[in-house]
Design a protein that fits this description.
The chain has helices spanning 4-33, 37-63, 83-111, 114-144, 148-158. The protein has 180 residues and is mostly helical. The protein has one domain: Ferritin (Up-down Bundle), CATH 1.20.1260. α2 runs parallel beside α5. The protein is elongated and about 55 Å long. 33% of the residues are buried. The model has no long low-confidence stretch (mean pLDDT 95). The chain binds MU-OXO-diiron. MU-OXO-diiron binds at residues 17, 20, 50, 53, 94, 97, 130.
């Protein structure tokens, strides 16, 4: 059993992860409207990853007998000036998520909540990957250029990304592993 305060923090984190999914869905939609189907696919794959992140927390609360308290999801921006702006905003957002995950680990340590501290390690490792991916894409965007053949080539490359995580949450979500 976890504390009420910890359940509150994790419920808030479910909302953060759901907003992440919403934000990347908005970016995917904007890419689709601009004919950038590869970037659109990359962001939609990211949407699925965020849904998994949210649902892992959701299932953890259920496993701990804690109350699920879903909150309103903030409206994401509708359009973005450039693809580079999208990835700059993505990296900035992921840094915010890393901070919020670290705060869960800090709270778990303070409460001597070993179960949550162990559980959140998966997210700590995952955030290294999340920030690294965005940083690398920003570097590639700088190299390829933000228009013309460079952008077209990168669009094709990013379109090769495939969903590797679990997308059916009716069967529960394992505590460890990506649920793939
Ligand atoms: Fe769920 Fe992209 O952090």
């Amino acid at each position: 059993m976890i504390s009420k305060a910890m359940a509150e923090t994790i419920n808030k984190q479910i909302n953060n992860e759901m907003y992440s999914a919403y934000l990347y869905m908005a970016m995917s939609a904007d890419c689709s409207s601009k004919g950038l189907n590869g970037f659109a696919k990359w962001f939609m794959v990211q949407y699925h990853e965020e849904m998994l992140h949210a649902m892992k927390f959701y299932n953890y609360l259920l496993d701990q007998g804690a109350e699920i308290q879903l909150q309103g999801i903030k409206e994401p921006p509708k359009t973005f000036a450039t693809v580079r702006e999208m990835f700059e905003k993505t990296l900035e957002h992921e840094k915010f998520i890393t901070k919020s995950i670290n705060e869960i680990a800090n709270q778990a340590q303070k409460e001597q909540d070993h179960a949550t501290f162990t559980f959140v390690q998966w997210y700590i490792t995952e955030q290294i990957e999340e920030e690294k991916n965005d940083t690398e894409i920003l570097q590639r965007l700088k190299l390829a250029g933000e228009s013309g053949p460079g952008l077209f080539m990168l669009d094709g490359a990013l379109g090769a990304r495939a969903v590797t995580v679990q997308t059916d949450f009716s069967i529960g979500v394992p505590i460890t592993g990506a649920g793939a």
